[in-house]
Design a protein that fits this description.
single chain, alpha+beta, six-stranded mixed β-sheet, globular
Length: about 240
Amino acid sequence: MKVEEVIREKPHLKSPLELYDKVKNFVEFCKNEKERLNLDTSTDLFDVVLRNFSSLFSIPYDSISFLKDEILRAGIDPVKIPSSLLLMEIQTDDLSKEEISRMFFILSKPFFVFLRKDGVEASFMETGKCPICGTDSSISMITGNNERVIICPMCEHGGSFYRIGCPYCFNRNPDRIEMLLDDEEIRIEHCLECSTYVKSFRENHFFKYKNPFLIDIVSLPLDIIAQKRGFIRRSPNYIGLRIIE
């Protein structure tokens, strides 16, 4: 299902859906450029990422090119440690603190995806965190075989986890996990032990929307309800939102 079709179906989500589409295209363009140019050095890759960001988000390259110098000055290597970008702090009169944080989140996305290798199978069973990049996740898919696959919001790796269970505190008591469903039966699983929730969807949702992160965006109203009830989302969605208001 194309984003334009989803917007027509859910016009109240137009803004986050449009941002999701831009971020998705940004990540894809960066990945394709990396492969086409056979780049592997941090400086070259960061320049490719910045130029794609500038083009897709209509931000003049000259206004953000200083970020390369800031990253070199900080001794950060986003190719090896993408999460280092999320900790960057810069001072500029042109952008607010929130805008800077969102920008670095989006800029880090391609570097997280660069970490993932096609065909690598690794589960979330041991720590509940992504075995590729170490990120927490808040979405999972229930397969046709009734197995659960957790999906990392940053590097996009999918790996197996317990069918019933909290990946944060490892509570596996079904009596201590509550369910909340929306009209499409996308659901939230509340852990009553640690107040965390994870969103789950079935394969039929994937067949409809074609992308797990799009499913996460179309079900934003579930996040609002869960968070109003005091439950916590431990990781951001595809557009960098963790607290949904």
